[in-house]
Specification:
Structural class: alpha/beta
Largest sheet: 9 strands, mixed
Number of domains: 2
Number of helices: 14
CATH architecture of the largest domain: 3-Layer(aba) Sandwich
Radius of gyration: 21 Å
Strand content: 15-25%
Amino acid sequence: MTTSRRDVLKKTAATVGGAALASLGAGVFAAQSTETLKIGLVGCGGRGGGAVVNALSADPHTRLVALGDAFGDRLEGKLTALKKSGVGDRVDVVPEMRFAGFDNFKHVADNVDVVLLATPPHFRPQHLRYAVEAGKHVFVEKPVAVDAPGIRSVIESCRMAATKNLAIVSGLCWRYHQGMRETFARVHDGTIGEITALQCSYNSGGVWDPRVTREKCKSDMEYQMRNWYYYTWLSGDFNVEQHVHSLDKMGWAMGDKPPIHASGSGGRQQRTEAKYGNIFDHFNIVYEYENGVKAFARCRHFRGCSNDVTDHIFGSKGRVDVMRHRIYDMAGNEIWRFKGRSKSMYQVEHDEFFASIRSGEPINNGDYMSKSSMLGIMGRVVAYTGKQLSWEQMMNSKLDLKPPSYEFGKLEARPVAIPGVTPFV
């Protein structure tokens, strides 16, 4: 039986929580509780601030009452900025509710109804587990972990959340973009036939340079955390932290069924100085699925080169230019394009998050956010080791990147990986 686009869109809505499309319209809170939901932010960086504004904009009966960050100086700066935002009248964080240090997340979760997790990715599994055990609804930025033990923890936490009727919403925001939803609905209803191959690229000039020198930090731990993007234990490497968006779209196309194995390469070509920590600056990974379909994934941080941030899906009857939301037949003729307007996907994910809490039908994005994050981790590990590895091997990996202790002291950085030398653990 042929699956219609309407059926696929209904399935997508159910996956991300009851009213996926309805929540784009007005009045979604008309028949719902007006009890104030207290919000707490863990991780006071740029994305954290954006998540707060989105959360407070999603539901008029919300207040930000707690802030947490490892560094106290970030708390005050973020609070000042939020009070000047368009939702500043609902930012009410008294001094006693501003928590610094490694255990800040516990104090935040203990005092709120909804927790927004926006720290460097390494901390996500630990913070999510605590929030769920405390019975809180959680917005979880991407990626959700940097290693397999972290992924296994997140999967368990999300299962626990389901039994407690708690909402878990992922920061993999393209799943909340209307143009993407329409595009993938057509992929899944057979418009391009059977998928034969996928290709995604995140080739750009990179992100921010290391912000703080070692001389300005009191310890190795502080230095690495303030420059977290450049340390694998904190970011997962950029194939995990940034390219996860592209990999998530490939996983989405494949119905979130994992590949059977992956292989690839990577290294450091431009970012070779010590200030760039121990991450790579380019990756080329091939993921192979059980049906023989291959996903070709590449990402690169090279300045002075041509950029390419695109995703393509090839089928037996046509192909999709994912980022442009266009579909072509085998002769190259455009047969469909999304012509609607998409509300900010960052806002929509919070609109639907809070609507699901109010409705009592909480969203749980745990499955795909874990699998997509693992796609990034898998790509990193096969590049670091130079090995072809199976999904099962990766899910059972014992490599745990956490530091010996969480304290501001000495912390030796891991060496830069060497393919063929760095072992698989």
